[in-house]
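Exercise 7.
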Amino acid sequence: MTLHSRYQPTRRVGIFWFCGEGRKRSTFVGVSRAWAGTAVIAGARRLAIDHEDGWTHARRLSPALASFEFDHFPRGRLEWQEHTDQWRLYIDQKLSRGLFVTTVLMNWRPPRAQLVVSIDRQYRSRANIGLPALP
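Solution. The predicted structure, written as tokens, is:
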């Protein structure tokens, strides 16, 4: 597993957040694993941890996040579905503007032709954040 906020050269699956305050540029923070190194379980390749557990790792590596709960910032998940050969990006509605999705695409490299983006109500957050800075 990798915790990062920088470009990764291989296709990945994982969980992520966009962290920031107000209108300032947000930062992409993700916990991921290479797609090819992730086993297919129940018809999908996905990270085996949830946002709450992933946030524990993120806070350990970035003290600036220590005072926030895992559900404060907009978040999402990228996984691959075997039966449809689709990449599924589940996101907070606040991330539905193109630059957020583009940031995930640039960092984790799923094939765009196979990508399905879905708003997932379980990822609703309280924070208002600015658009991300592109790498």
